[in-house]
Design a protein that fits this description.
Elements (H helix, E strand, L loop, with lengths): L1 E2 L6 E2 L18 H12 L3 H7 L6 H11 L1 E2 L6 H13 L8 E4 L6 E4 L5 E5 H6 L2 H17 L1 H17 L4 H33 L2 H13 L8 H13 L3 H11 L7 H12 L2 H7 L14 H18 L3 H10 L5 H9 L36
Parallel strand pairs: 4-6
Antiparallel strand pairs: 1-2, 3-4, 5-6
Helix pairs in contact: 1-8, 1-14, 4-6, 6-8, 6-9, 7-8, 8-12, 9-12, 10-12, 15-16
C-alpha cells in the first residue's frame, strides 16, 4: 500500500484497475444474481432476516473469533491487512470488514455475518498461498461482502446446524433439508460469482488458477500444470454415460462449493468473455442503478444461461435433455444406448463388462456435507 499524493488515501501498491461505484451485479453469476435481485426486491426481507439474529450463532461466532483468533491489522498480519484494503479499494466497498486468521490446518476462508460481515482465513490457507494467490482469495471474500452473500450464508449455516439437531424428526428434517438443498444450489453459484470478484481484485488469471489448483492438490506447483488441470474439468463434464451423470448430481448435492476443476474452468471461460472485458474497460453496472433492476429481466438472464449451458454441455444427461426438448424420434433407443454405452445390453451376452453392477456405487467417498462458509 502507498499514500496518494495528498497523503490522505491509501491505494494499491501496484497498478491495478479500480472500479468506482461498481455494482456486484457486474460479476455475479446469472443464477446468483437473479436470486439476489429477487430477495432484495422483497420489502423488509433483510429486516426479517436480521430479526433472526437472536436465533443465529452470529454473536457467538464474533466473540469466538475475537477471543481465539488473530485480528488482522497494521500490527498483526500487516501484509494481509494491506491486501484487504486493496480489495475494498478496487471494488469500492466503503466499509472494510474485520478479518481474522484462525488456527486451522485445513485451507479455508469464509465471509459471514448479518449486520456486518467478517472475513476469516485459516492458517492452512495463509501458509499454502503466495501473495498474488492470496490477493485473489481476499478479493473473493470481499466480493461476497459486496454482494451481501454473508447474510444468506449465515442463515444457511444456521439451517444446516438445525437440520443436524432435528434429524430424528422425519418430517421436520425433510422440510429443513429441502430448504438447505435449495440454498446450497444458490450457494454454489455464489462461489462462482466470488471467484470472478477475486479475479477483478487480483487481475492475474494465472494466480487465480494456481490458487484453485493448490486447493485441490496442495503446495506442489512443480508437480502440477494449469492446462492439464483444466483438461480434468473437460473430462469430468464429457466423460462417462448417463449413470455417471446421475452420480455427478448425487456427489454435488451435499456440497457447498462447486468442484475445484469446474471452478477453474468457469473462471477461465469468464475471463475470456466480453462481459469481463467490458468491466476492465470501465463499462459496468453501478450501485445507484441497483434499485431499478428488473426481477423479470434477471430471471430471464438466468434462464437463458441455463438454456445455453444445456445446449453446449457435453454431459450425457444434458444431451438427453436436448433430445427430449428437440423431440427425438427414437428416445427409448437413445436412452438405452446412453445408459448401456460401453457394456452389453439386457438380454445380451453377460461378459465382464455386462450390466450386473451400477458402475459407480463403490466410488470414493465424497466426504459428506461441507461447511457452508468456506472458500
Amino acid at each position: 500500500m502507498t499514500e496518494s499524493p495528498g497523503g490522505s488515501e491509501r491505494v494499491p501498491s501496484r497498478d491495478r484497475r479500480r472500479f468506482p461505484g461498481i455494482s456486484s451485479r457486474a460479476y455475479e453469476h446469472p443464477a446468483d444474481r437473479s436470486a439476489l435481485v429477487a430477495l432484495r426486491k422483497l420489502s423488509g426481507f433483510d429486516t426479517v432476516f436480521k430479526t433472526l439474529s437472536g436465533l443465529l450463532p452470529e454473536r457467538s461466532l464474533r466473540l469466538m473469533f475475537l477471543s481465539d483468533s488473530v485480528r488482522v491489522s497494521d500490527q498483526q498480519f500487516a501484509h494481509l491487512n494491506d491486501m484487504l484494503r486493496d480489495a475494498c479499494y478496487i471494488l469500492d466497498l466503503e466499509k472494510v470488514p474485520p478479518m481474522y486468521v484462525n488456527q486451522d490446518p485445513s485451507p479455508n476462508a469464509m465471509c459471514i455475518g448479518l449486520d456486518e460481515p467478517i472475513i476469516v482465513l485459516t492458517t492452512g490457507l495463509v501458509e499454502l498461498l503466495d501473495e498474488e494467490e492470496m490477493r485473489a482469495v481476499i478479493g473473493h471474500e470481499v466480493g461476497h461482502a459486496l454482494s451481501g452473500h454473508a447474510v444468506y450464508r449465515t442463515v444457511l449455516l444456521f439451517l444446516t446446524n438445525l437440520a443436524l439437531k432435528i434429524a430424528w424428526i422425519p418430517l421436520g428434517n425433510v422440510a429443513v433439508m429441502a430448504i438447505v438443498t435449495a440454498l446450497r444450489e444458490w450457494f454454489r453459484k455464489s462461489e462462482l460469482s466470488a471467484d470472478r470478484a477475486g479475479l477483478l481484485v487480483g487481475q492475474d488469471l494465472q494466480a487465480s488458477m494456481r490458487g484453485l489448483m493448490k486447493l485441490a492438490g496442495g503446495n506442489h506447483l512443480h508437480e502440477m500444470n494449469v492446462d492439464a488441470f483444466l483438461q480434468q474439468a473437460e473430462e469430468y463434464e464429457a466423460g462417462g454415460d448417463l449413470r455417471d451423470s446421475v452420480l455427478k448430481v448425487l456427489n454435488m448435492l451435499p456440497r457447498s462449493h462447486p468442484f475445484t476443476t469446474v471452478r477453474a474452468a468457469e473462471l477461465k471461460k469468464w475471463s475470456a468473455s466480453r462481459d469481463y472485458q467490458r468491466i476492465m474497460d470501465g463499462h459496468y453496472p453501478r450501485k445507484e442503478e441497483d434499485k431499478d433492476t428488473s426481477v423479470s429481466d434477471s430471471f430471464r438472464e438466468s434462464a437463458a444461461h441455463y438454456a445455453e449451458s444445456v445446449r453446449t454441455s457435453k454431459d450425457p444427461l444434458m444431451g438427453l435433455v436436448r433430445d427430449i426438448a428437440g423431440g427425438a424420434g427414437d428416445l427409448g433407443g437413445k436412452l438405452r444406448d446412453t445408459v448401456f454405452r460401453g457394456g452389453s445390453r439386457p438380454g445380451g451376452s453377460g461378459g465382464a463388462n455386462g450390466t450386473g453392477g451400477t458402475g459407480g456405487t463403490d466410488g470414493p467417498d465424497t466426504g459428506g456435507p461441507e461447511g457452508p462458509s468456506g472458500r
